[in-house]
Design goal:
This protein has 326 residues and is α/β, with parallel strands linked by helices. The protein has helices at residues 4-15, 19-35, 39-62, 95-109, 111-116, 135-146, 155-158, 165-179, 195-199, 204-218, 237-242, 254-264, 275-281, 287-304, 311-322, and strands spanning 79-82, 124-128, 150-153, 183-186, 224-229, 245-248. The chain has 15 helices and six strands. The structure holds adenosine-5'-diphosphate and magnesium ion.
Length: 326
């Protein structure tokens, strides 16, 4: 029989719109039922889960954003459109960050309910933290969870050295937010919004910052505006007031090292791996560095170890990523 913990998790995941977790718990219950000899119940749950998964697949295909969202004209040089299938469960996050992101995703799924009470979902999010910790991946996951296109703003195209031109290009991007609902991602936003901009009152940098702030203020589209920075300390203070939530990313704690490796190496048996040793060796590596080490180790395992991923192979891969020139 399902445990009360399982039931609570199911209800929670249903409320959060986390269909993946909901189905995973249902599958667990079916497996437990089978172990306990309740074959009919296990069968029935599996049939239901199978049907739900099929429905989910069809919905994903049907909700694939049409090419109406494909940027045309000048916009095409200012944003790159992608249609991520990434889910939030693909991103290894602290439970605090995960909960906050799931709440924001839910606000968008249930924006009609909020609208009935005159409320809006939060749309402007600032992601900050060191490189390779999952900021861009989060932007893709939010788009994937909401079935929205991800428009990555190409700052090289937006920022020009000609007076006033940057503002005109930014306007094109902000106009697009009205026309095509999506996740608009300003990666490395410090390039647009550094403090130096405000301190230096003659430069184009200040003009650029001011127009960015103004567009952020005026925006009333249904799109999400995500900005990411590796250098929060460089951002102008005025930027922070424009964002409705700031999410901080950091290098991974030891249990995340393990989670990322396990997630990245599903084809290998990792039972023999000495995790404390691996986590110590991985200290200082970003999540992206750990993913890269996992891929190195997988290649070595296949080519040198007949497909066995030993603790030694993994340790060597992590060390080499940690000290690439040794
Ligand atoms: N928190 C994470 N969980 C799982 N994989 C991650 C995480 N952070 C980074 N990665 C891996 O590293 C790659 C690059 O990370 P990215 O999101 O671009 O980092 P950032 O934008 O913070 O610099 C991702 O595509 C993913 O493979
Ligand atoms: Mg990034």
């Amino acid at each position: 029989m399902a445990s009360s913990r399982q039931l609570i998790t199911m209800i929670r995941s249903h409320a959060a719109g986390d269909e993946e977790r909901f189905l995973a718990v249902a599958e667990h219950i079916a497996a437990d039922a089978l172990k306990a000899g309740h074959h009919r119940m296990a069968d029935e749950i599996r049939t239901l889960v199978g049907a739900l998964r099929e429905e989910q697949r069809e919905r994903r295909v049907a909700s694939k954003p049409t090419m109406i969202a494909a940027p045309r004209g000048e916009l095409a040089s200012l944003v790159r459109a992608t249609y991520p299938e990434t889910r939030l469960s693909d991103v290894v996050l602290t439970s605090d960050v995960e909960t906050r992101l799931r709440r924001i995703i839910r606000e968008h799924r249930e924006r009609n309910l909020l609208a009935e009470k005159g409320l809006n979902p939060r749309r402007k999010l600032l992601l900050s933290g060191p490189p390779g910790t999952g900021k861009s991946l989060t932007a893709a996951a939010i788009a994937g969870e909401l079935g929205l296109p991800l428009f990555t703003v190409l700052l090289d195209g937006v920022i020009t050295k000609f007076m006033g031109e940057t503002a005109a290009k930014l306007r094109i991007v902000f106009d697009a937010m009205q026309g095509a609902r999506g996740v608009y991602f300003f990666d490395e936003v410090d390039a647009l919004a550094t403090r130096r901009g405000a301190e230096n009152d003659i430069g184009e940098a200040r003009r650029m910052l001011n127009s960015f702030l103004q567009f952020l203020d005026e925006d009333s589209s249904g799109s999400l505006i995500l900005a990411a920075t590796n250098h929060q300390e460089l951002l102008d203070r005025a930027i922070f007031r424009r964002f409705e939530a700031t999410i901080s990313y950091d290098l991974p704690p030891p249990d995340h090292v393990r989670r990322i490796l396990v997630q990245r190496l599903p084809q290998f048996d990792l039972l023999g791996v000495s995790w404390p040793e691996i986590s110590t060796a991985a200290e200082g590596l970003s999540q992206a560095g750990i993913v890269a080490a996992a891929d190195d180790a997988a290649r070595d395992a296949v080519l040198e170890e007949k497909g066995m991923l030993t603790s030694e192979v993994l340790l060597r891969a992590v060390r080499e990523r940690r000290h690439p020139d040794r």
